[in-house]
Amino acid sequence: MCDVKQNIAKLVEDLEIERIHVPVVACGIGTNARDAVKAIQAGAKEYIPLPPDAELIAAVLEAVTEESNTMIASDPAMKNVMQLAEKIAPSEATVLITGESGTGKEVMSSFIHRKSKRKDGPFIAVNCAAIPENLLESELFGHEKGAFTGANGRRIGKFEEAHGGTILLDEVSEMHPLLQAKLLRAIQEKKVTRIGSNDEVKVDTRIIATSNRNLEASVQKESEIEADAIFLQESDFTQGASASAASPTNAPSAAGVSPSAPTVENTEGVEILIGRTISDVERDMIVNTLDHCLGNRTHAAKILGISIRTLRNKLNQYKDEGVDIPQVG
Question: What global pTM score does this model have?
Answer without folding.
Answer: 0.54
